[in-house]
Amino acid sequence: MVLINDVYAKDKQELFTNRVKELAMIESVIESFVEKGVRRHLAFLGLRRIGKSLILFEYIKRNKKEVIIVYVDLKKTSMEPQFFALEYIKKILQWTLNEKEEELLVLVNKLKNEDIFDQLNKFLRDVKERNNFNLINFAFSFPELLSKHLDKKIVVCIDEFQEILGANKYGGIDNIVDIFRSALQSQSNTLYFITGSIITTMEKICLEDKSALFLHLDKVISLYNFTKEDSFQLINKIFKREGVKAPNENILLEIFKVSRGHVFYLTIVCEKIIELTKLFDFGIDDNLIKRAFLIELTNKNARLYNYFNYIFENSLEKARGKTSLKSILLKIANRERASNVELCFDLNKRAGEIQTLLKRLMETDLIIKEGRYYLYRDGLLRKWVRTFFLGIDIDNKTPSKNTEELFSQLEEKYLRV
Fold first, then answer.
1. Each residue's pLDDT tens digit, 26-50
2. How many beta carbons lie within 10 A of that of residue 76, not counting itself?
3. For position 172, which CATH number holds?
4. Local structure of residue 246 (DSSP, 8 states)
5. Which of 178, 201, 222 is the last residue of a domain?
6. Which residues are CB-contacts of 216 (< 8 A; sequence separation ≥ 6)?
7. List of residues 6+ apart from 290 with CB closer than 8 A
8. The whole model's pTM is what?
9. Which structural domain range is residue 54 located in?
10. Domain-terminating residue out of 183, 205, 222
11. CB-CB neighbours of 303 under 10 Å
């Protein structure tokens, strides 16, 4: 439990809500794996910060079965082969031994197994020789090697799996997903759960027939925003934690509407509402909810603003033609959805050029295609774009000037406090 508490903060544990179906599925899959040796690999797909990692953490915390569960976050891991391989093996050992030790050889010594020690020494020689293929191949093979030594089955949870594609740009690695698939296919004591938040990329990895992982994942689970009932439950938990009286059903419904049931957005809006009630003794009503949401959406010091700004800018940085891509995103934000023809007219560009740009945008996962129309995958990101870039308020009626006046008043109150 030492390591799970490092990645799964106590306040997150207290607020964990529902996801009963997903936890039951994981429980069933692991039970079959442990008791019958049946491997059913799972993938969890969903928007960023929707709770994919939390489901894994919650299961690891609750797990009582005789199985080792390892967690690897590729978002925090370099994909340069030598560093990735070292980090991957280190994480396997840390979670297996429930140790925070950072030195690889110190960790492997704790296993007291000469064969594994010798193989790791050979691996470290490959690190010096920079044999990228051998490094990656050994890293993916290591959980199975370890499980046979310990006579225990291992579940490897790989978070933000799409980041693995970053290894393909290094020499000797033509297709890292294919290397992963070869390891997965040859193993019998290792089970995999993967997650991803770049949904378009993950769908290609998991579901397209050209992908090396096609048909190797038994279930691809899409995670969605909370229902109204689950949102109400989470809101009440947040208010109780802060020692604030639970709001009535109308208020609960309004918070659900502005956050659309997205766990992260809902939490941020609730915390801002509570902050405003404590600082200024405001009563909680529809007006305060809208005010809290506006502050978070448009104030450059607010968490929601900074989150959307990071997603928007970081996604565009990864694609070619940032200026043209941004123009398309602004037009789609203004229209809500737009067809190729409409974008050609709005931007005075040819259909082929627009189509190429739209394809790049879909690869960033900022937009999706429904029928002949293109729209934002995340509706609240669209609201942020409309407010920040186009100067249009979230309800399409209030100009941004009103929001600026609101911030000015609030800043004065903050300074007085």
1. 999 999 999 999 999 999 999 999 9
2. 10
3. 3.40.50.300
4. P
5. 222
6. 41, 181, 184, 185
7. 258
8. 0.92
9. 2-222
10. 222
11. 15
